[in-house]
């Protein structure tokens, strides 16, 4: 895999440590690579009322978009229960897919990963936005 994507994965691994997950104990880190090379990070932030919980992918995109970014290349995701010795090949939820698709072209890359507790990359899969959300909704009128 391209070195820039390995670096992106490592950043998702690090920001995952900031996840606020007192309810699910399921921690997610996401890192978004912009076409200009900048990277923005996000983690899931839960809430006692449950529905206000926000996923890692969306916190990363919120950070990027409020900084003026509009051109995106890839997102890396590291996800799993805090007690697990390895993370799982987690995939973005439907809400996050739609949220990201607002800003991403068909060839935007989604990198799913499996990592050890120490941050060693054990496995990864790369998909495009078109693959994970075909025929997506857009507001064209
Ligand atoms: N979560 C994410 O951060 N991203 C996803 O795409 C799926 C789920 C979070 C939300 C919640 O804090 C925890 O994972 C369990 O659902």
Summarize the structure.
The chain has 141 residues and is an alpha+beta fold.
| Annotated CATH homologous superfamily | Cytidine Deaminase, domain 2
**Global shape:** globular
What's the N-to-C terminus distance?
40 Å
Biggest β-sheet, characterized?
A: 5 strands, mixed
Secondary-structure arrangement, i.e. CATH architecture: 3-Layer(aba) Sandwich
CATH class: Alpha Beta
Q: Can you give the helix content as a percent range? A: 25-40%
Summed up, the domain count is 1
Mean pLDDT level:
97
Strand segment count: 5
Annotation field: number of helices: 4
Q: Assess the beta-strand content as a share of residues.
A: 25-35%
What is the N-to-C succession of helices and strands? HEEHEHEEH
Give the names of the bound compounds: tetrahydrodeoxyuridine
Structural class: alpha+beta
Q: Low-confidence stretches at least 5 residues in length (pLDDT < 50)?
A: none
